[in-house]
């Protein structure tokens, strides 16, 4: 247990608790108690997602004095997020020094956790953070912060109620619903979308002839087989490496580009200025920056690419946009746009994720009412980008906006704290570098909204407050009559 004094993290755990106490954590709850008309308890906030985004969101909201809160995740404990499921890189792309979800508390940083376990010398030798180790750190973060994630809890429908609350259906609806005033979708990379599946695999058997990089792929079954990976981005390269390391006969990566992308463009302006200013610049500039970065394409990391190319049975092919796939004689036959033909045993799609509120079943009652960028902004000729157009148009507190004003007022109570927020407010709700900054914005916005909504309640609390600061013994009224002296 984490309280065991023999635990290697005992000293760090004590330091975290001390640091938090110096920050007056946890503060007292200040929000108005609410129940449904039927008498069911109502949370101020429910967070969907117990991975990195959900944990730091909970921490920031709790530090803001929002105590009446629940956090749920459909995954089993310890398997939240992609780290132990479909993420297949050896190390994180982010530098080891980034602060991630520490939220300004030095003792909560990855470095503090790592050096407590392995020492400063090992830290100096560490290149980048191994992927499974990042998950171990997040487990510790959850435990030391006592974040009450409710695992195996799948929110399948979000229903706006006439009383202004949100009702969350759990699973198939046999469990009691959850009622909340505010909802935070801390649901990661695909939190407002789905894996991108090209039309050319339509009609083919998933997991038998092909799989997406986010699927649960049985690489053992692919030992000795010919594998083709579509794409040369990070997920494509990581899956190619996984297949090679588990004994694939050969792996070929097909890229539609004529050359390998080599420059991570957004690194050129990476700074706190970008983090703080992105959401405040004009829609034209936000679109321009995100569209340019997307079209340039972010390359796979240096070490990930070497992980593939070190195998003599790996091959990179460029200028190979896909024309068609078909199953023929036990093979998958791929024809490229330039006429090349490849025969293989299995195809892995490294095609990433698409953002589109219309793809999310839990939003079905109102998904068509959510405003997207294509509803608010028309890019100049030559800068069109249909994929970016489907990103939601958000307020600066990550809340959804209405496509038609007045038709879905409850959308202001659903906060999109995941990758889909990046076009509206920047990369502060999915990537490690600025996740704490995004969580603070979220907490400030949610707290402000709850206070404003309950202003009548807080007015009554103000009127009713009668705790004396002074008891009358602290001063003397110079103009008061002198007390009468009694004679014997």
Automatic annotation (TrEMBL):
Q: Spell out the protein name for this chain.
A: NAD(P)/FAD-dependent oxidoreductase
């Amino acid at each position: 247990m984490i309280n065991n004094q023999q635990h290697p993290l005992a000293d760090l755990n004590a330091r975290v608790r001390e640091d938090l106490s110096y920050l007056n954590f946890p503060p007292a709850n200040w929000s108005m108690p609410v129940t449904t008309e039927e008498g069911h308890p109502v949370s101020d906030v429910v967070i969907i997602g117990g991975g990195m985004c959900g944990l730091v969101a909970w921490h920031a909201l709790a530090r803001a004095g929002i105590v009446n809160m629940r956090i749920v995740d459909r995954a089993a404990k310890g398997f939240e997020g992609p780290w132990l499921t479909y993420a297949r890189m050896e190390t994180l792309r982010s530098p080891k020094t980034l602060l991630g979800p520490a939220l300004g508390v030095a003792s909560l940083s990855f470095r503090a956790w790592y050096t407590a376990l392995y020492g400063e010398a090992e830290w100096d030798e560490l290149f980048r953070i191994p992927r499974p180790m990042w998950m171990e750190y997040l487990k510790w973060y959850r435990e030391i912060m006592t974040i009450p994630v409710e695992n195996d809890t799948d929110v399948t429908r979000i229903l706006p109620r006439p009383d202004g609350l949100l009702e969350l259906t759990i699973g198939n609806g046999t469990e009691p619903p959850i009622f909340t005033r505010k909802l935070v979708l801390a649901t990661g990379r695909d939190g407002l979308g789905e894996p991108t599946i090209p039309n050319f695999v339509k009609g083919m058997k998933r997991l038998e002839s092909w799989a997406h990089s986010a699927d649960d792929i049985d690489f053992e079954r692919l030992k000795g087989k010919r594998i083709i990976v579509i794409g040369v981005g990070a997920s494509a390269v990581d899956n190619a490496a996984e297949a090679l390391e588990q004994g694939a006969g050969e792996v070929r990566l097909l890229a539609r580009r004529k050359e390998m992308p080599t420059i991570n463009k957004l690194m050129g302006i990476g700074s706190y200025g970008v983090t703080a200013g992105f959401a405040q610049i004009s829609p034209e500039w936000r679109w321009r920056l995100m569209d340019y970065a997307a079209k340039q394409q972010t390359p796979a990391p240096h070490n990930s690419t070497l992980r593939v190319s070190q195998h003599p049975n790996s091959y990179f092919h460029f200028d190979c946009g896909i024309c068609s796939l078909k199953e023929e004689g036990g093979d998958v036959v791929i024809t490229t746009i330039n006429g090349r033909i490849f025969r293989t045993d299995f195809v892995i799609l490294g095609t990433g994720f698409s953002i589109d509120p219309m793809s999310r079943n839990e939003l079905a009652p109102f998904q068509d009412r959510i405003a997207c960028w294509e509803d608010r902004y028309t890019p100049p000729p030559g800068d069109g980008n249909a994929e970016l157009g489907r990103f939601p148009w958000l307020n600066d507190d990550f809340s959804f906006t209405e496509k038609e004003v007045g038709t879905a007022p409850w959308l202001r109570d659903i906060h999109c704290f995941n990758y889909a927020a990046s076009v509206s407010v920047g990369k502060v709700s999915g990537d490690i570098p600025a996740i704490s900054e995004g969580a603070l914005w979220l907490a400030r916005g949610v707290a402000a909204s709850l206070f404003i909504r309950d202003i009548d309640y807080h007015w009554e609390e103000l009127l009713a407050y009668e705790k004396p600061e002074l008891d009358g013994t602290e001063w003397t009224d110079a103009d008061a009559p002198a007390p009468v002296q009694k004679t014997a």
